[in-house]
Amino acid sequence: MGILAVGRWRARVGRPGGATESEFEFARDGSALLVVGGRGSGTWFPTGPDTFSYHILEELTEAAGTIEISQEGVLRGDEFVSNGNAVVRLANGTTAREAAISITAHRLG
Questions:
Q1: DSSP labels, the chain
Q2: Percent of residues, the chain, with pLDDT higher than 90
Q3: What gap in Å lies between CA 29 and CA 1, rounded to an integer?
Q4: Which end of the chain is more exposed for a tag (fewer CB within 10 A), N or C?
Q5: Of 75, 34, 80, whose CA–CA distance to 57 is shortest?
Q6: Whether pTM exceeds 0.85
Q7: Which pLDDT belongs to residue 3?
Q8: pLDDT, position 2
Q9: CB-based burial of residue 61 (10 Å sphere; 0-12 exposed, 13-18 middle, 19+ buried)?
């Protein structure tokens, strides 16, 4: 596993209707966590010398279900930009909505 994105990141998550703040942690073992702005876990992996992908399954707070986050990122020093989508799935498996999201993040510490 590469170390490209290892660390804690403060992120601005842009989606239709506005933006929110979040924090992510990417570990050496390939695990990924959403730790602020929601709670979720998943994986990340390098896809090139300065690119990576990550996938996080976030638990919904307002209803039973999940948000599936899939992103492709580009690292530039202590910043990354990623783009992808988020799919909201209700507990019964139906898709409630889907949206393109973009994330800009800065490494903490």
A1: ---TT-EEEEEEEEETTEEEEEEEEE-TTSEEEEEESS-EEEEEEEEETTEEEEEEEEEPSSSSEEEEEEEEEEEETTEEEEEEEEEEEETTS-EEEEEEEEEEEEE--
A2: 86
A3: 7
A4: C
A5: 34
A6: yes
A7: 75
A8: 61
A9: exposed
If one counts every other C-beta atom within 10 angstroms of the C-beta of residue 30, the result is 15
For the record, the structure tokens of 45 come out as 């992996």
Q: What is the mean pLDDT of each run of 10 residues along the chain (109 residues)?
A: 85 93 96 95 95 96 91 96 96 94 94
Q: Two tokens at 84?
A: 């992808």
Two tokens, residue 102:
């973009």
5: tokens are: 């994105």
* Residue 53: per-residue pLDDT: 97
Residue type, 32: A
Q: What do you get for the CA distance between the two ends of the chain, in Å?
A: 22
